[in-house]
Structure to design on (173 residues):
């Protein structure tokens, strides 16, 4: 299925998942897609390794957590998710030095909390490597960062207009 990019999300300077200045980080780029899906694109490095040539499970969990937690800002731009619980199912090894795609969306949205689902796809854009269900407490960005909430954040423009993915979410809504 072809998903259209509706917005590109900001990257932080020092965040482990999306930070552009974090030498140990994953340098994830996030794209808001039609149907309120969030897509993260990255490639693991040797510093993210557990067993040889495989990404560490904690880092896999961080990717899913960040992606689901950011998905709330598609519909609520001043909101961030603070994780209260996360369950991850590891389906296959996540290879290093290979582009992976992390998709997330919100499954339940309440006034103070939300829940979401995420999946990591291999470079073939269809093989499920890991999946997650998570719960979050909503926090206003200004409550976390203060009034200067965009300090240390930057928008890195690119020409991505759409992504073709061979995995389709099945929503139970």
């Amino acid at each position: 299925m072809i998903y259209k990019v509706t917005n590109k999300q900001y990257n932080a300077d020092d965040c482990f998942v999306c930070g552009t200045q974090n030498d140990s980080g994953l340098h994830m780029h996030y794209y808001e897609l039609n149907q309120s899906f969030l897509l993260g694109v990255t490639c693991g490095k040797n510093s993210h390794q557990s067993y040889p040539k495989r990404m560490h499970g904690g880092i896999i969990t961080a990717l899913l957590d960040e992606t689901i937690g950011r998905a709330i800002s598609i519909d609520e731009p001043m909101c961030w998710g603070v994780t209260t619980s996360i369950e991850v199912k590891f389906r296959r090894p996540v290879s290093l030095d290979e582009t992976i795609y992390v998709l997330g969306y919100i499954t339940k949205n309440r006034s103070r909390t939300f829940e979401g689902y995420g999946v990591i796809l291999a470079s073939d854009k269809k093989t499920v490597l890991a999946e997650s269900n998570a719960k979050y407490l909503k926090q206003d960005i200004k409550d976390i960062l203060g009034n200067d909430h965009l300090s240390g954040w930057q928008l890195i423009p690119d020409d991505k207009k759409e992504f073709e993915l061979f995995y389709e979410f099945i929503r139970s809504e």
